[in-house]
Design a protein that fits this description.
Blueprint: E1 8-12, H1 19-29, E2 34-35, E3 38-40, E4 54-56, H2 59-68, E5 71-77, E6 80-85, H3 86-94, E7 99-102, H4 105-114, E8 119-124, H5 128-138, H6 143-157, E9 165-168, H7 172-191
Parallel strand pairs: 1-7, 1-8, 2-7, 3-4, 8-9
Antiparallel strand pairs: 3-6, 5-6
Helix pairs in contact: 1-7, 5-6
The structure holds guanosine-5'-monophosphate (5GP).
Guanosine-5'-monophosphate binds near residues 42, 73, 102, 103 and 107.
Amino acid sequence: MAKNCAKLYVFSAPSGSGKTTIVRDVLKSHPDFVFSISATTRKKRADEKEGVDYFFLSENEFLEKVSKGDFVEWEKFYDYYYGTLKNLVDDNLDKGLSSVFEVDVKGALNIKKHYPNSVLIFIAPPSIQELKERLINRNTETDDDLNKRIERAEMELSFKDRFDYVVSNINLEEAKIEVKKIIEMEILKENI
Ligand code: 5GP
């Protein structure tokens, strides 16, 4: 029987670091990979779809799942809950499908604790100043949420050395190529 080479590729980065674009590119280059859809209590943005970008839950629904132990990990930040559903991760692993995660730094470290085979990739912004400008230009947050995200970015950056790989997103195209090389290398490792 073929060896199950499914892996967990876990991406973290401060908001506005280009993480979502890079994750989308990974999924485009690897149609056999699946995006691990998290649950959240934050409001759906205009361009997001239920069950595609997130499972959007009420706070009660989320906390019920917490009490049932349905999450591999969960965090509360910016007044909202975010969590990785255990059954989705395990279903994909059982099917032999590699998953791509987009979670915060603490979530990434917790995923690795449960699934030591996970590959943690940190996408670093060129500078905090540039990050602020990207977030302002993105214009998806209120001023209050924006300030919270910037404060959080500084905390997240302090975790980057605990990741398996750190990719600087100074130039988006170069960052995408670097990520592709990391994944190719990880796939090769599994096939040795
Ligand atoms: P956003 O609201 O911009 O979609 O996400 C805010 C933060 O929550 C990002 O850092 C994102 O990676 C993180 N996040 C999304 N899903 C999860 C999750 O399931 N667990 C954790 N710990 N963080 C998550």
